[in-house]
Amino acid sequence: MSRRLFNFNGGVKPPYNKEASLGEAIADFFAVAPMPAEFVIPLHQSVGGPPHPLVKAGETVKKGQLIGGPDGNVSSAVHASTSGRVKAVEMRLMPHTSGLSALCVVIEPDGKDEWIDHAPVPWRSMSPGEVRDALRDAGVVGLGGAVFPSHLKVNPGKQGHLDTLVINGAECEPFITCDDMQMRQRPDGIIKGAAILRDLTQAKQVLIGIEDNKPEAVAIMRAAVDRLQAERIEIVAVPTRYPAGGAKQLIRVLTGIEVAHGKRSTDYGVQCFNTGTAHAIHDALELGRPMISRILTVAGNVDRPRNFEVRFGTPMNDVVALCGARPDSDRYIMGGPMMGYRMPAETVPVVKATNCILVGSKAMFPPPPPEMPCIRCGECAKACPSDLAPFELFWFSRAKIFGKAQEYHLFDCIECGCCAYVCPANIPLVDYYRFAKSEIWARENEKSAADTARERYEFRLAREERDKAEKATRLAAKAAETKAKLAEQQAGSDAKKDLIAAAAARVADAENKTNAS
Ligand code: SF4
Ligand code: SF4
What we know:
2 domains
């Protein structure tokens, strides 16, 4: 009997454009390209605190060596992508639309590509906390694009087990095929990773959701489940509709659970990981290999679109060079056309979030028509898979009424772009939401910095007050002690005087008696 599936609200059907990059097998970038002159490895590649550098310029490193130590629990480690010499630890341009720089470890390869000693992690005999630490130290983060540290999600929750573990192989964004190709070529690692996650979270069932426009992947993954005799793991083909790969949308389709605004899927006993992340968890625990590379798609305005396994820190233009960017190419987009970001330069490095380098041109992505006033048609609301009111969010974001935007659940917006896709007024709605989110984050950061400064000031005042009070108590004690000593001395001196007087009296008395006789 086939599993009952559910619908999510909204969504769109953009042209998928995936076929072009499915023609060739995944290539190991190192096997087909010269070694890059340098690897620029950003320390901050995940959600959470940026790791702190553990190496200095001039030091030699091996492949897989820890070069960025996690900053607390909500952070993830970073490792050397190859062996070589640390050229610098310095600010370099990030693969981010902001055009900002961040601290990077720059490695000049020695060409030996020599691994550091590594061994499988005995995770079955470790406590849950130790396994989470091992995943954090292996730098495993979500490879679906969100780069959330995976160790924080490997948790059976309050009830001691998950009802459902969802493994996301939907890959709904146009042009991107890295998950599809990984499922076709490396299914065993994904299934074994899913089984590890099943055991760590005590999940009653594991559902691997794959859009039904990937029939080869569905068949290969089903065969792998049978071959590996993976218990409680089921491959489910889900209808193709963007954004079926959103975590909440896939959970809805597979389980019927509607995750309410402000809630997490774990509140309903469900957790979600990407297929690539499941594979990376397998590699980290069963092979002892930290995350130093990922599979990514190069597509768009290139002669030979395809997938590569690429080490982090490799310049994007080195990868694109293998695909023959056409002469009119004028941009790199990291991600797909719906959710991707334009890169500030072609030389920025591949990072953990790079699932696709989409090469664009003016012909492929013509400038958008001029933005018109909103006509309140409501099409955006119909298309929104998160059940938001995009036009209200637009008004509040544009007017900088951020409190209202938050009231309308701005942070439940997954930036899928469906609203902008259908908007007849050509309003770049997602740009407004990103602006509003970054402003709110900046203000919260400022507030938290101000709060920290205020707390420090209050702490200093309290400490000064305490020091003052302690000093006063010490002085008072000393004064009391001195007074007591003086009193004692005084008492001693009075007693002495009395003794002398008594002695003098005795002498006088004796003299009187002598004179009288
Ligand atoms: S689709 Fe565009 S024009 Fe229509 S209500 Fe939404 S924002 Fe306004
Ligand atoms: S970008 Fe946000 S508001 Fe627009 S459709 Fe997607 S989730 Fe809804």
